Amino acid sequence: MPVLEVTAVTKRYRRGPLANDDVTLAVDAGEVFGLLGPNGAGKTTLIGQVIGLLQPSSGSITIGGVDVVRTPAVARQACSYQPQSSVPIDNLTPRQAIELAGRLRGGAPARVSQRTGELLGALDLLEWEHRRTDVSGGVGRLVAFCMAAVEPGQVVILDEPTNDVDPLRRKLLWTQVRALADAGAAVLLVTHNVLEAERCVDRLAIIDHGRVLALGTPAGLKAALGSSLRVELVLETGAAPPDGPAFAPPPVQVGRRVFVDVALDDVSRAVVWARDLQDAHTVAEFSVAPASLEDVYVRRVRPTDGDEEVGLYVAAV
Known about the structure:
By secondary structure, this protein is α/β, with parallel strands linked by helices. The protein has helices at about 45-50, 70-80, 95-105, 110-120, 135-150, 165-180, 195-200, 220-225, 265-280, 295-300; strands at about 5-10, 20-25, 30-35, 60-65, 65, 80, 155-160, 185-190, 205-210, 210-215, 230-235, 250-255, 255-260, 285-290. It has two domains: about 5-220, P-loop containing nucleotide triphosphate hydrolases (Rossmann fold, 3-Layer(aba) Sandwich), CATH 3.40.50.300; about 225-290. It is globular.
């Protein structure tokens, strides 16, 4: 049975928008589950209900079979949570903040101290260990992760954990996220970073405007696109988007990027088409690659007026 089950959850704010609309998903022990979507998609609102800070308008949420809507104290005990916002640790060193979090969650002092040292070493934070200064940016995000991971609950919720983290420590962080799941936790990763989701999660849900648009493994969601290849164009600044080639489906545009699916037999024709656009100074550069989770994302989450990138963010992991 899944550790976390969210069933038909709807959240409507009074005189406000429909933040979650009939959301259903489940997270197993030992699994990293990604909740992927643009800013304002309803991800953080859903997390607020899972940890008992908000009450659904309808639907149910259980952790370990216990209804946490009726007993929110159980949710707060069962969940370790790294929020999206900064965690203030004024007048505390990183080690003190992490150990305090572990003790508050009921960890034995010796075990918490040992685990704190392990996390600080694994994330290359030992030089910050005893600094009683304002820790901000990427180091602050990593300390906040350690505070959630030092004495993890049944469910570990990480809301945009890699924001502001440098590429080297980001890789170290993902090793620790995987270790949490391997130790038996159900890890719920909230992100709008498509590349992170593809490389790091076992399953994921794509959510937008409060609804789950796709659910499955990264491989399964990509397979649903078929055996086509992706042609990606980067438009010259100010250039109008081109019409798609006659032998391919209509293109999808996200900001200056244009994506076109082409069949394997049509790749050579697509390359000639893209080169002609480049020679005409419409396209700055182009590439051909197999379908990715990003392709699934941009076809499910379409930009609205004024959305330059729909929250789409790709970074090296």
